[in-house]
Amino acid sequence: MGIAANIAEDWHAALAALAWQVDAGADETILDAPLNRYDLPAEAPKPLAAKAFSSSALPVASGAADPVAVARSAADQAGTLAALQAALTAFEHCDLKRGARNTVFSDGNPKARVLILGEAPGAEEDREGRPFVGRAGQLLDRMFAAIGLSRTSADAESALYITNVLPWRPPGNRDPEPAEIAMLLPFVERHIALVDPEVIVVVGNTPLFALTGTKGILRARGTWAQTLGKPMLPMTHPAYLLRNPAAKREAWADLLSLQARLR
Ligand code: URA
What we know:
Blueprint: H1 3-23, H2 48-52, H3 67-77, H4 81-89, E1 107-108, E2 114-118, H5 123-128, H6 135-145, E3 160-164, H7 178-195, E4 199-203, H8 205-212, H9 217-220, E5 225-227, E6 230-235, H10 238-243, H11 248-262
Helix pairs in contact: 3-4, 3-7
The structure holds uracil.
């Protein structure tokens, strides 16, 4: 018998021995020497939170003035949507901007009666520079088209205006941090004031949280509330509806409620 045949025979023999031991209940391997697992390691590992919240991970550029105050001042000085877009594009206090290709400002007709407020751009929106152009956005368009509303309509009656809480894509589509939402909220509030829609539709938890300080879109959806002096309808995010098609029935009820409100 050659060497190769010996190796093969040893391998089969070893496997058979292991199988026998597993059948017999020996399902853990042990070391030759005992190991005290309660011993402290020579160097204690750093807590995860300390790493996650190190200054380089914070969205606020270090050494900056209070970013919320800077945002408020810049937003309040903008007298037109074009000025607000320029002020937002020039805002340097949010690190999300550094990883983004575009500042995604808005889409649709600023004369629309309905303003939709989403969360943040995804990869496609970041590439194109327009909100809601990916799969979720296509569903959003179909949903609102079902009640006769479109972002491409020139007629205010049937038009939509769409924007997001954050104009820059969070890396890996992670949820926006409360600090990011807080520093961009002055721009969102000014944006809504300048467009002055009749109703605001918030889609998903992030815009609900941004405008009301509360979460729980599944509980809040379908119930009209008041924000910034305007009626607000919370709805589930179209990305959620893509993952949970059964929830489309409730979304349809919410759209009918919106349609009734506009009549
Ligand atoms: N999801 C959002 O909330 N906004 C977009 O623009 C795209 C996806």
